Amino acid sequence: MDAKPTTGEPAGPDIATSDARGDSTRDRSPAPAGEPTLLDTYLPDYDVTEFHVCVVNADAETTWAAIRHSDLAGIPVVRALLLLRALPGRVRALAGGRPAPPPPPFTFDDMPRVGFELLAEHPGEIAFGFVGRPWRVGDERPVAIGRGLFSDFSDPGYTKIAFAIRAQPCGAQRTLVVTETRIAATDVRSRRLFAVYWKLIGPFSALIRRAILRRVRSDAERAGSSRSGARAVRIDGEIVINRPVDEVFDFVADERNEPRYNPRMLRAEQISAGPVGLGTRFRAEIDTMGRKVPMTIEFTAYERPRRLASSTHLSMMDTEGALTFDPVPGGTRMRWSWNVRPRGLFRLMTPIVGPLGRRQEQTIWDSLKRFLESREAASSPLRVEGHS
Fold first, then answer.
1. Residues 6+ apart with CB under 8 A from 131
2. 3-class DSSP state of 297
3. What is the pTM assigned to this prediction?
4. Residue 386 domain-assigned (yes or no)
5. If I label 19, which of 59, 203, 302, 316 is the partner at 20 to 30 A Cα–Cα?
């Protein structure tokens, strides 16, 4: 690990790698000049760093959406790793006469499942951290120290690994996507042990990061092409709910409440840290013609208690828009306005998306009105805590 900085060969069209060691790596980061990255905050001193870079023919917003929502479990090498980690549970299921469940979707929100804790997220950049002894087979479990202690952790015998991915505009319809991995051992012995481990695992780790970039590029460029060629369908409506505006806003803003009034939504969970607010993300599952369809929701504006904007992604469509909440005598007038862009083969159904979507939206919010106004709601605790 004392070797001089080296640069790898290109890893495919528009994908390049760089592997460097020591403080000189700070001058090699593809980040814009003068702009510190999240890893500069959480792991400024390191022994090894590795970059992977690709250019995406899509705007930064579309590319970032692909980074945040792409299902990495569809990458063969990632899927194989997830199956390997789930092997004990699958064996137990088969031994008990139950079918082995398929691996669930895996996005960057699921990084804690493989030991990487969320360190921070800024617009266009997200970072994760791992502390442990990965060279100890069978005892490579990470140390749970919390993001606030990651930078200062220095107990001997461990290695800290920080990983980040960021998207940087590099033209009107082009985006530079960079993954960076930094590694720092806490003592000389750990540095030597990790060096041996990294010689074996490093190439495989690089393979995974290149595969992730290819998936992100493919998803972003496909979404960009779909957006440019697909006509957005506008869905608007309004309803008056006889409950105070603050209560209606808070209840609707917590997506975990929706299965309580929308029978098509099977489950919903918050996947971002912290209280509900700007940037909060949820993962949900809806029933579409008897098929379970995953979806992700991200709040793009949060102006309590008057306006809540969101971006929703499904395999068949993308939806962007906002809810507004206005006090009226006796309650709240809630309005919705959505732009729906069908994707893939679902674009063939564009002519019926509008009428079908308007009917479904009206049904959902009618159900919300009945729920909030019912005696059941009055006696049932509403989930409104944790808002900012």
1. 142, 143, 145, 150, 153, 158, 159, 160, 161
2. strand
3. 0.60
4. no
5. 59
